[in-house]
């Protein structure tokens, strides 16, 4: 046993150097633009247009970050982004959990149609929803409101989140439901107290997925919000993208708007990676 | 299979309960997806600006799209774009997943770094690259000129030669982590004894890949391939922020064209009709994949 391990270890090690070199190469490609963003964000205005760009600024300064809070509506927009993304994520997770449990535990008419519909929604161009959405939201008087935007954010990822969630519930044996029911739990109690806690990793990954998708959202928000104080941070930043661009301000805002996502992800990464895949591998 | 189904039915005595559980998702999807979609199809039969002009035109919108050569050009451009982007994702995804699927110390750090592009908002990534590609003060031109690969600055996003490939590069950069993660998980699910047996039989690395790795990954690959292709076929944000579809129509992906038709020319009926066509194309792509990759 031990011998075998050593042998296969040797075989593996042969390819390891190559693997490390490949990964280092790609890590550099990934990190360069990100570091350049950070580097730019701590430059002063005059260094932006220097003939020789430097990685470490001559006079590092937080002036761009100060302007983030003072000169732009970014803080407000950051708050909006958090509200839209967080509220929609919570509602999406609730819908996805119920549906995931229902689909894996019950037989009912239309079940297969429901399941395949979840994937078919991925084929619709979201621009196609944009035109009707604009009209629907407008006729409901929800343009430029929190409720309207949260609804929009839900629509973006609810179908795929439900589909992911199904994979998780499928992996939990039905015997557990049976046991809980024999012990006198109602269906709802079984769902809430026995099965849900077991799918926590799945819930975490669905939540992160919806959160990333929401944070990423650009097209719907750019059309459906017309007032700066209702827009999200990504819209705010891209609106600086004009003729004369203050790259340091823009990069500072980019850094700040990316930090929440990186933090959320670093904490929950374990769940996300396993979750993203177990839904797909088994689904 | 049969047995488990029987058990399932025995376990489930009350059928209606299933509906209660899917009700929240169903009602949400009905209001937020199905209704708007049907509304979109409805609009596609009108010549409308959504405000004061509602002329029923039947299939005229579809007719004018399908007889428009430019529309086919844009569809082809978008197909070329998705094939290049998805191909890039899978090539890099495979290489990195293979590299990550080893026991090396510090692997977690590599994995975290390699996942980073997934986390940054598309609009932010587009802006970072727009700054790097900036013709006057951009990093790329500076590096190339210092090394001596080019003598004068290149307008990466403004020239017909480069804009499309630059967009493809940025989209590959942004999107490969999802594919990598999926393939990695698939690889980790493969039974290790298969490889050991193959080694005993003296199988080459390439054969190993062809006859063990690929077939075992089939189900993951099919789902990932379908999703990645249709997602990028419909891509909008980065192309919009980087190039606005320009120069000319070089990077005018179908989503951008629909967007412009609707919100710049206010021809909502035609835009909706174009969306319906895109939906059909995406559906056809996914059907095609499923047929090609179906288990015999």
Automatic annotation (TrEMBL), chain A:
Superkingdom to which the source organism belongs: Bacteria
PROSITE patterns reported in the protein's UniProt record: ABC_TM1
Domain ABC transmembrane type-1 positions: 78-268
Transmembrane segments: 20-38, 82-101, 113-134, 146-169, 190-212, 250-268
Record flagged with keyword Transmembrane: yes
Keyword ATP-binding listed: no
Main location class: membrane
Annotated GO CC locations: plasma membrane
Keywords in alphabetical order: Cell membrane, Membrane, Transmembrane, Transmembrane helix, Transport
UniProt membrane topology term: Multi-pass membrane protein
GO biological process, any: transmembrane transport
Subcellular localization: Cell membrane
UniProt family annotation: Belongs to the binding-protein-dependent transport system permease family.
Entry protein name: Carbohydrate ABC transporter permease
TrEMBL record, chain B:
Species annotation: Diplocloster agilis
Keyword set includes ATP-binding: no
Residues annotated as domain ABC transmembrane type-1: 75-289
Keyword Membrane attributed: yes
UniProt entry keywords in alphabetical sequence: Cell membrane, Membrane, Transmembrane, Transmembrane helix, Transport
PANTHER family (UniProt xref): BLR7065 PROTEIN, SPERMIDINE_PUTRESCINE TRANSPORT SYSTEM PERMEASE PROTEIN
Transmembrane segments: 21-45, 74-97, 109-133, 162-187, 208-233, 271-289
GO cellular component term of the entry, any: plasma membrane
Similarity comment text for this entry: Belongs to the binding-protein-dependent transport system permease family.
Predominant subcellular localization, coarse grouping: membrane
Protein name (database record): Sugar ABC transporter permease
Topology with respect to the bilayer: Multi-pass membrane protein
Domain of life of the organism encoding this protein: Bacteria
Cellular localisation: Cell membrane
Gene Ontology biological-process entries: transmembrane transport
